[in-house]
Amino acid sequence: MLRIAVPNKGAISGPAMAMLHEAGYRQRKESKELVLVDPTNEVEFFYLRPRDIAIYVSSGKLDIGITGRDLLLDSGADAEEILQLGFARSTFRYATKPGTATGPKDFAGMTIATSYEGIVAKHLADEGVDASVVHLDGAVETAIELGVAQIIADVVETGTSMRNAGLEIIGEPIMKSEAVVIRRTGAPADDPKVQQFLRRLQGVLVARSYVMMDYDCRVEHLERAVALTPGLESPTISPLHHEGWVAVRSMVAAKEAQRIMDDLYELGARAILTTAIHACRL
């Protein structure tokens, strides 16, 4: 069986399990379940602390895992990302009291508090900055107020919590993170079970990003209509009973669907419908 690590809690856990469910895999119903076997799909899921997943995968005990890019890089584990999943996006940045510093060039001799010591230490080394890094587990915003550090480095989504703590975000982003699928570095890239798993997740990503659009169009307007809905390769076109009309079916980007419907209507197309795509293989 393919052995897969899934976060047991946190921002990645819920969306990851939802995606796996959409991909046709069984998922746990109780948060106390630590292991779930899906015999139909020949997969075994292990629900682990998000920070531990890269370590387990790099050890070879598990084949692949779902975790955050930030957690993967911070772990220093011998693992690599093989698919971006498009959720749990965040930015990793520095913050401090106004007037303290404007960026890493001002950090010399200062102390930086973070839950991601590995990422920060590497970034400082890359920038050639001689500063101290202190590791804290969560709530790093209070580190400055309590005098533990002059700078903090943390995941930023909206920046609200930092502003509420009287801090300002400084410098360029250290990195951008999102949920990713990882495997051990050097693991066979052509493992058929892993490839099937990736195809399923890629199918979910495409299904979420596209809709199927159907409409009726006069033959004389067909070329202009097809230019609006070219599809992934080309649209399906079928003649209608009424002479001079055709039915067109094509995949279009979901975020563009309403605009395309407006343009098609102005062109004279009618019976314009969109339907969700639940699964696909490209």
From TrEMBL:
Source taxon at top rank = Bacteria
Where does it reside?
A: Cytoplasm
Q: Note the Pfam families from the entry.
A: HisG, HisG_C
EC annotation from Swiss-Prot or TrEMBL: 2.4.2.17
Record bears the keyword Repressor: no
Instruction: Name the Gene Ontology molecular function terms of this record.
Output: ATP binding; ATP phosphoribosyltransferase activity; magnesium ion binding
Keyword set for this entry?
A: Amino-acid biosynthesis, ATP-binding, Cytoplasm, Glycosyltransferase, Histidine biosynthesis, Magnesium, Metal-binding, Nucleotide-binding, Transferase
Q: Name one GO cellular component term.
A: cytoplasm
Biological processes per GO annotation: L-histidine biosynthetic process
Q: Which InterPro entries does this UniProt record tie to the protein? A: ATP-PRT_HisG_long, ATP_PRibTrfase_cat, ATP_PRibTrfase_HisG, HisG_C, N-reg_PII-like_a/b, N-reg_PII/ATP_PRibTrfase_C
The prosthetic group or cofactor this protein requires is:
Mg(2+)
- Pathway(s) of this molecule: Amino-acid biosynthesis; L-histidine biosynthesis; L-histidine from 5-phospho-alpha-D-ribose 1-diphosphate: step 1/9
Q: How is its activity regulated?
A: Feedback inhibited by histidine.
Domain Histidine biosynthesis HisG C-terminal residue range list: 207-278
Q: Which reaction does it catalyse?
A: 1-(5-phospho-beta-D-ribosyl)-ATP + diphosphate = 5-phospho-alpha-D-ribose 1-diphosphate + ATP
Principal EC category: transferase
Name the SUPFAM superfamilies for this protein: GlnB-like, Periplasmic binding protein-like II
ATP phosphoribosyltransferase catalytic domain: residues covered = 49-203
Does the record bear ATP-binding in its keywords?
yes
Briefly state the protein's biological role: Catalyzes the condensation of ATP and 5-phosphoribose 1-diphosphate to form N'-(5'-phosphoribosyl)-ATP (PR-ATP). Has a crucial role in the pathway because the rate of histidine biosynthesis seems to be controlled primarily by regulation of HisG enzymatic activity.
Q: What HAMAP family is this protein classified in?
A: HisG_Long
Q: Could you say which protein family the record assigns here? A: Belongs to the ATP phosphoribosyltransferase family. Long subfamily.
Protein name from the UniProt record: ATP phosphoribosyltransferase
Query: Could you tell me which species this protein originates from?
Result: Streptomyces parvus
What is the organism lineage in this UniProt record? Bacteria, Bacillati, Actinomycetota, Actinomycetes, Kitasatosporales
